[in-house]
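Appendix B, Record 12. Input sequence as logged:
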Amino acid sequence: MVITAASTVETVRSKFPQAIVDTVEFRDEQTILLKPENLVSVCRYLKNELQYTFLETVTAVDWPERVPRFDVVYQLHSMPNRCYLRLKVRVGERREQHPSVPTVTGVWPGANWYEREVYDLFGIVFSGHPDLRRILMPADWTTHPLRKDYPLSGFDLPEPYWGGQVPYNTDPGVGDYYKQTLRTPEGRELNENRSDVNSSQEPGTFARPEDHEAPDTLSDSLDLPATPVPSRNRSFRQDDASKGLPSRLPEPS
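Logged structural output:
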């Protein structure tokens, strides 16, 4: 039997008629919308019987004006059959702060961190997850940044601005060493020509004193002249002018 995404939809429809809310075909992509309570049994069947052994990702979409509010999306790949399938479940009743979906880590162990990310950024709980905690935001963060009602510029927080937005006119307190480019209403001011940067230096920082003092042991032992590092603000070679080449690179517009 040849397994395709289209035949998978028909197989799941006949095997789990009570589980399917809707099916969608768009640009040759197949999506099955499932009831949350039937998610794990359908996933286990897809993996064990139809060879959808690879869970590519788990993500979510927030529809604030809709009830249920969230789509939880599963991208599946059957490598032996070279076909893809998308599953969706909808959760989030009105004023429900943390809607719940069953975990699929018992089917695909790789779902562990995917589900943690969705929990962290959308606030969707995966019941039965072996270690459900934040993975990107600080452990004591109280909101979920990928919800559509989350402020685009983050939150202005009191000291020490733990994980949040530093106000525009506030020095974050790292001193001059790191030359921090503070957020401003007009945007970030960057050192575009990189004139203060060398190969051993972190972009946007001052060169450390030891960078200037450390001897070049190889060139010292061989008594070789130091080779200058070219820069867009320095001449290339002495004979550039005789070859009709510009001695300076044009400044960026």
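The radius of gyration is 28 Å.
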